[in-house]
Structures are given as C-alpha cells and as structure tokens.
Amino acid sequence: MGVFERAKAASGLSEGADETAPYVCLACGAPHEVQYHRCPDCESFDIRCARWVEE
After folding, report:
1. What is the CA radius of gyration of the chain?
2. What's the pLDDT score for residue 18?
3. Is this structure's pTM higher than 0.70?
C-alpha cells in the first residue's frame, strides 16, 4: 500500500466510505463537504468533524 492509499484510508476518503458530509455545524446542524471556519448558513464558528460528533 502506497503513501496516498494509506492517507486516503486514514482520512476516510477511500472507496466504500459513507456518503455523509464529513463536517457538521453544531449550532444549526448543517452538513458541509469542507471544513469552513465559519458556517455559511448560521455564521457560527462551531464546525466539527461529523465522525467526532457521532461518537
């Protein structure tokens, strides 16, 4: 397994990953594909990784 394959597997970007957005705003619950510094929907600064929120 190469460096890129290991990085993709560790980050959850490999094939077979679930189709949910990787980031979520804790204030309004909006899902996001990228980690914004500020939520574009409610302007909160509380954007978290969805995997951490689910655990």
Report:
1. 13
2. 56
3. no
